[in-house]
Request: fold
Amino acid sequence: MTTRSTIPSATYRLQLHKDFTFADAGARVDYFAALGVSHLYLSPILMARAGSMHGYDVIDQGRINPELGGEAGFRALAEAAKAAGLGLIVDIVPNHMAVGGADNRFWLDVLENGRDSAHAGLFDIDFDNPGTDGKVLVPTLGDPYGEALAAGGLALIWDETLGKLAIAYGPHRMPIRPQDYAEIAGGAAPAKADLARWQEPGALHALLERQNFRLAWWRTAGDLINWRRFFDVNELAGLRIEDEAVFEQVHAVTLRLYAEGLIDGVRIDHVDGLADPTAYLGKLKDRFDKLTPRRPEDAPRDGPYVVVEKILGHGEALEPAWPVHGTTGYDFMNQVSAVQHDAEGEAVLDEFWETVSGRSADFAVEEAVARPEILQTAFAGQLAACARAFALVAAADPATRDLGAETLRRTLVGLISRLGVYRSYAVGAPRELEPAMVAALDAARKALPADRPSLDFIQTVLDGHGGDEADRAEAIRRLNQLAAPVAAKAVEDTAFYRYSRLLSRNDVGFEAGHLATPVEAFLASGQARAGAAPYAMLTTATHDHKRGEDVRARLAVLSELPDTWRATVRVWFAMLEDDGIAKDDAYALFQTLVGAWPLTLAADDRAGLAAFAKRIAGWREKSLREAKLRSSWAVPDADYEAVNQAWLRRLLDPDQSSAFLESLAAFVARIAPAGAINGLVQTALRCTWPGVPDLYQGGELWDFSLVDPDNRRPVDYDLRARLLAERSTDWTSGAAKQALILRLLSLRRADPALFTTGAPESLPTRGERAGHILAFTRRLDGRRISVAAILHAAAAVKDLGATPDADWWADTEVQIDGVWRFASGLFEAGPVFVEAGA
Reply:
């Protein structure tokens, strides 16, 4: 019998794609095992769109992705992992599939046959939407429909791969109804038919009008689309996972792999996109529970391990009814970041941001603008459908039937714009409404007194009363599945790119308006975690992060030196001609250059600066377009973007900006040592806190990555394996971080119960610098692990690899196991002290 558990002691996240396959991962299992993780945590493995670099654009849930090595390759990886003592966790995507193109056979069948398709129930399509006349809207055209038709961009062809007559538009294929074949072919075999006359715009338009799809300009999707998307992505269609047949189709391979003992659990992507997460998770648990006894004798049976990708709003806790081990760790990433920021710097950072941007330093103001803006543009059609659903419920009662769809649409804007969480979990049955939803309703009533009757009605429906039960459930479903993507797009993908007070506090799952957290509050969060979710993931880097963990750790230092930072930026503004760059955009760029600057990059290294500029340029384009202030994905401002790119290239060209580069490099050198200390402390807390530490690929060395695709660049595993074998503790390469991970994960694997069950207890500190220490112990059955870490030491640290000296620590002490010990001794060898003992 196995002694291995399905519950990880630590995971290592791998992003699989055609250039890093199952075989590539299998070749590195000895390294992963030597590092100390217990499980490999894989990005989605089911068949995705060809060339996918992330795997979330699944096109067939019934096959393991052949680009990754297919089923045989996966089994070989599982065998190799098992031989190395490792388990596998896989990422699953129950919310959506990739559509468009010509590769999703299920979607193509729906386009061909409409609501009569055998696969129509797979997708969340509203065939009764009044604006689409029973058709599926296909918003793939680069120009308005009439222009694309007149320009000859659309063609009727025989597609050999599909074996069907189809409309071709670039890479897209839209199959023609079988009923039209006879007329089109004129008695010939469809593959041999003369299609020339059908290319004439009038004839082609008449044919298109008869199809089960309606072609449209991509910019109309927000207003006209009649199917649910993943956020506002036209290439990802929402699934009706609440349908039993759809559930079985989506999970068949995953459940089989679990039953065979090849995987130990799953990470569930975007759980808030589902109609009823509670019911879904309960169903999934039931299916897993029935399979667990059937797993092989040598496979652990204490699982499965299940975590959900879930963004928790301020004060929000994971739904207690969910049968999961916890979240994927964005909440911890936010908490550990906040404790490393210094609240003393907030006033200066606020004032400087307002001066630079001309906007408020209160993030709530930025969010309040972005939410209704995104709701009424990217999601206008979905908003209208939600309003109609609530109007249908209202019409059933004489007391509310005067609340029409337009009134309710306006009211829903007011409500969703004030909702501080992703969604509610109401489903139509009577239940207690979440505090965040109640608070949003109350705030909307205060701001919109004329709409109080409709807000009262919406609350009644959410509480599980009024109208027909099925209609009520449908209205609530639409509201929840609208609120979640609006939150994601408005907050993380819009407001976070507009608000640059300090970019280290703008990341997935973060509270950008909350700069710093006291040590006491951080310790309290750990105690709560130990009680409620001791097996939840702890992460500080993901495939979705906007800045690498060590970029954030370095930028956090600016909160300790706000006056120095402000003075430095003023010098840069005075030194540089802005070339028409908005000051807030320039300020965000300065922060990014400082945060991501490699430790080995010199101010006169032309090749290194050119490579760095290329990486920053990708971030710059994305940041401008996501902010939607001066450019956007929908309407890019090519001139402004070009000016930004030219300015960036000039700033990083030593022939044109040597003085700036020398100043920039000198400033980075000033704060990088403290940033590196933060990076090690962040790592240590992830590895010693209640939960399961997750290590994002490559992050065992310094992670100065930016937003995707930069954070998915190839990882040099040969370098990492060599440093691990040498037991290097070098700071410049990041080997000191790897060595710390090795030590702490070894402790976790040796005593997993202590690290999951023992709640962190604050250790007493005293003396002049007591406020610069975070210290705690965890105990279980007479065993303990004590941890002390340095906080906010930028004033005392100026050399990479150094820690504050004894003079700076003065009389500061920490009480460990009843004995007072000088901080200067604890931190002589490094910024983290860890001691295991009885």
